[in-house]
Amino acid sequence: MDFFRSQDAARRNTKRLVLLFVLALFCLIGITNVLLLAGLGVFAQTINVPLFQRIDWALLAWVSGAILAVVAFGSLYKILSLAGGGARVAELLQGRLLQPGSRELHEQRILNVVEEMAIASGTPVPPVYVLDEPGINAFAAGYAPSDAVIGITRGAIETLSRDELQGVIGHEFSHILHGDMRLNIRLIGVLHGILVLGIMGEYLLRSTRHSSRRSKDSGNIAVVGLALLVIGYAGTFFGNLIKAAVSRQREFLADASAVQYTRNPAGIAGALKRIGGSAVGSQLDNPAAAEISHALFSEGLARRFSGLFATHPPLGERIRRIEPGWDGRFDLPAASASQAEEVTRASAAPLAAEPVADAGQAAALSALAVSAALLAQAGNPREADVQQARQLLASLPPALLQAAHQPASASALVCLLLLDARPEQAAQQQALMADKAAPAVGQALQTLLPAAGTIRPEARLPLLSLALPALRQLSPAQYASLREVLLALIQSDGRISLWEWVLQRVLLQQLDGVFVPRSRLHHTAHRSLQQLQAEVVLLLGFVLRVGAGRGQDAPGQQGALPSQAQALFDEVLAGLSLPGAPVPPPEQLRLPQVNAALDALQALKPLQKPAFLKACAALIMADGVAAVAELEIFRALAAALDCPLPPLPATLTASA
Amino acid sequence: MSITTIIVLAAAALLVVYGIGIYNQLVALRNRFQNGFAQIEVQLKRRHDLIPNLVDTAKAYMAHERDTLEAVIAARNAAASGLAAAAANPASAAAMAELGAKEGALGAALGRLNVVMEAYPDLKASQNMLQLSEELTSTENKVAFARQAFNDQVMAYNTYRQSFPPVVFAALFGHGSDATLLQFADSAQIQSAPRVSF
Known about the structure:
The complex is a heterodimer of chains A (656) and B (198). Chain A is 61% helix and 2% strand. Chain A is an all-alpha fold and 656 residues long.
C-alpha cells in the first residue's frame, strides 16, 4: 500500500475507532443497568406489574450519567496527558532518553541503527527512549513522522544482534510510515476512560482487603468494589476488542515491511525467535504497559488474550509468515561477541560510483520521471535505500558525524550548512557568527570549517536530520539564540536561495514544534486544493521565482522570469485543476507569508499531496536540468509537508 | 438538578482540567531538565576520560612533578564519583552541590598542572599534548554549553513552579521543591595561565 493511501486509510480507521468506542459505551451502560436491576430484584418480582413500571428510571438515568461522566473524564484526562506527543508515551513508561553522544556500546549501536533507518526512509531521526525492562520489546509513538519517538527495552538492546535490532526498528518504522502511531495515541486516550472503571473497581476491592475494619461498611464497599470490578472487566473486554480489531493486521503488515526494508528475513525472524525462546519473553513489568499493549512490538502483558482479543498475532504464526520453512524451534545462539565491530556501521565497500555532481550527466534524465519515481517510493524505503544510507553515513567525515551528536557542535553544523560558497559572503557570515553566536558554537564552527568543502549535496539533508536529536536538547534560550543566528546568516546576502529557505523551513518546523508548544498543531488533513487555492498559488509562485533566481548574482532580486514563465505557471495550475493566476509579485513572497502558506498546506488531504509535489517538481526543473541539488530540494519540500522521501535512488547516482 | 448544581459541577470540571494542564506542564519541565543533566553527564564523562591520557603524556616529561599529577588524578576520580552520584539523583540539591564542588576542584587541579607545564616547553609543544589540549578545551566548551542549557531548563522549571496558579498545586502533585542549579567555574577560563602580580 503506498504511503499516501495508508496515511489516508489511517485517518479513516480513526472514524471506525470512534464508532466502536461509542458502541462499547452503550453496551457498558446497558450491562450496568441490567446488573443493577437484577441486583435490585426487579426481574424476580412476581407481582403482576409490567416490567416497564417496575423500573426506577430516575435511578437508571443517574447511574448511566455517572458511568458516562467517569468514562468521559478518564478519556479526557488521558488525551490531555498525551497531548505532548510521542515523548509523553515514552515518559508514561518511564523511558530514559538516549543521548546522541552516548559512549556506551549498546546505546551507540541502537542509535546507529535508528539513524540508518531514518535516513533511508527520509524521516527526521527520532529520539530513542530506553525502558528499563528485561523483556524484549519496542514501540513507536507520535502524531506524525516528524513527531515520532521510538522506545525499546534494555533487554532488547542487550540481547539482540545488530541484524535483529534492525528488523525490530524496521518494524517500528513501518508503523511510523503507515500512520499507525496517531491511531495508537488516540486509542490510548480513548480507551483509558473505559479502563478506568476496572481500575476503580480493583482499587476499591484491594483497599477493603487490606483494611482492618470488619464492619458492615467494609462489606458494602466490597460489594460496590466487586460491582465496579465486574463492570470494569466488561469495560476491559470491550477495550481489548477495540484494540484487537485495530492492531492484528497492522502487525503482519509491519513485519512484512520490515522484511522489505532490510531484505533480511533472518533479522526480524531472529528477534521473534529470541522472544519465544527467552523466559521473560516480551513481557513488560510496568503497570502502564496494559494501556499501550497494542502499540508494542510483541505481546507485553503476562495475561495473554488468545484468539479474537489478542492484540498481536501468535508468535509462531508471525515467524512462519516470514520464514515459511521454520522448524518450530526457538533456540538461537547468543548474539555475537564481536560487539565492537557491530556497533560501528559495517565498514562499507566504497561507493559503487561517484555521485552525480554536475548538471551535465543528469541532463539526460527526465526530471518529472525522476520525481514521479521518488514519489512512488514515499514512505517505502527498500533494502537498497538502507544500504545506501549506511554507505552515506560511513562516507561522512567522522568529525561531522560526531559534531551532529552534540548540541553545541550540532548548532555549528547547521550554521556550516548555510555558509555561502562565495568567499566574501562567507567571510561576512563568519563575522556575524563571531558576533552573535554562543562562544562554544563559534569555536565548534572554527573546528568544522575545514570539512565544509567535503559535504556533498545529497549529504546535506541527512546531516540536518542527524543533527535534530541533539538540537532538541538545547535550552529554550539557546534555541532562541540559534534561531536568531540562522535567520541573520540567511539574510546576510540580501536574498534567499531555495536551499536556505528549505533548511530554515525543515529545521524550524521540527524545532519550533518542540520549543514552542502552541505551534504544534495536530492537523486533521481534510482540506482540498480548491480550498487552499490562494496558498497553493503563493507557494508555486515562490518556487518558480526562487528557482529562476538560482545562479544569479544580483542581490536583492528573486530573479527576473523568463518569458514563458507565466505560461508554464498556468499550465501547472491547470494540472492541479485550478484556474490560472498571475505569478505573485516578489512583495507578496516574503518569508513570513510563504511559511504561513506552507503551514496552511499541512492540512491538505493526503491523496492530494502527490499532485502538489509533482507541480513543484515541474517548476523546479523547468529549465530541463535535473541536477542533484534540485532533486534534493524536492526531497526537502516533501519533508516540509510531512511526506518522507528516501534519498536519491541508488540507480540514479550510479548510472551515467 | 438545579441550575446552581450544574454550574458548580461545570466549574469543578474546568478546575480539574486546568489542574491536569498544570500537572502535565510540571512533569514536562522536570523531564526536560533531567534530560538536560544527562547531556552534561555525557560531556563530563568525556572530560574525565581525557584526563588519564593527559597525565600519562605529561608523566613522560615531568617525572619529578609526581605530586601535581597525582593531585589531578585524585581530583578526577573524585569528580567521576560525584558525577555518578548526581546522575543517580538529579533532583537532589546535595548531590548537585557536591558535583559542583568536585568539578571545581578538578578545574583547579588542571589549572595548577597548566602552571607547572609552563616550565616544560617541549612538553607543551609535543604533538600529543597539543592534540589533547585541543580536545580538552573543546570538551570544556561543550560542558559550559550543556551546563548553560541545564541551568536554563532548571530556571524554567523553578519559575513555573513558583508562579501563581501552579504554586498552589505543586506540592500536591509531588513537585514540592525547587531543582538546583549546577554551579562550577568553567575551566575554560582557568586554562589560560593565571596572571602573577607582585
